[in-house]
Design brief:
- The protein has 135 residues and is an alpha+beta fold.
- The chain has one domain (2-133).
- The chain is 27% helix and 36% strand.
- It is built from two helices and six strands, in the order E-E-E-E-H-H-E-E.
- It has helices at 45-66, 83-97, and strands at residues 2-5, 9-16, 19-28, 33-42, 104-112, 127-133.
- A six-stranded antiparallel β-sheet has the order 1-2-3-4-5-6, with helices on one face.
- A hairpin with a 4-residue loop joins strand 3 (19-28) and strand 4.
- The longest helix has 22 residues, at 45-66.
- It is globular.
- The protein starts with a strand and ends with a strand.
């Protein structure tokens, strides 16, 4: 699941080994830019279930938007568009506020999977991530 993209994937949920993790790209305030290092925190199963439900809500909207069926203002991330999306967002944000030191710091290589013709043009392609140890 990709939650944030800015000149590349910046945050979301992905598996490292056989376990789900929330990941967030480090920002170098001195350089004013993102680094290539990601911090990873274990994602509890209940939150993974909720995040998966939220991702499905978003992906359904994304398909409709890129097919021209709904306007951009109906994005479920806009508060009030989807009560369930908002409820899940609040639970996830509570978890994110509770995080301390990351369990891992890794470099990530994200690649879009090939052959996804069922997705309308403009939709985020399903991705695979390869995690690499830092320096």
């Amino acid at each position: 699941m990709v939650w944030d993209i800015y000149d590349g994937v910046r945050s979301g949920i992905a598996f490292y080994g056989a376990e789900p993790y929330y990941f967030d790209c480090e920002f170098d305030s001195g350089e004013g830019d993102y680094t290539d290092v990601f911090c990873l925190w274990p994602m509890p199963n209940e939150l993974l279930r909720l995040a998966t439900e939220q991702w499905q809500i978003y992906r359904a909207w994304e398909r409709k938007f890129h097919s021209g069926e709904v306007p951009s203002g109906t994005h479920p991330g806009n508060r009030g568009q989807s009560a369930r999306y908002d409820e899940i967002e609040d639970r996830i944000n509570e978890y994110l506020k509770s995080l301390s030191a990351p369990a891992h710091r890794l470099v990530a290589k994200f690649e879009a999977q090939e052959d996804q013709p069922e997705l309308p043009r403009g939709c985020l392609r399903e991705m695979e991530v390869t995690w690499l140890r830092t320096g």
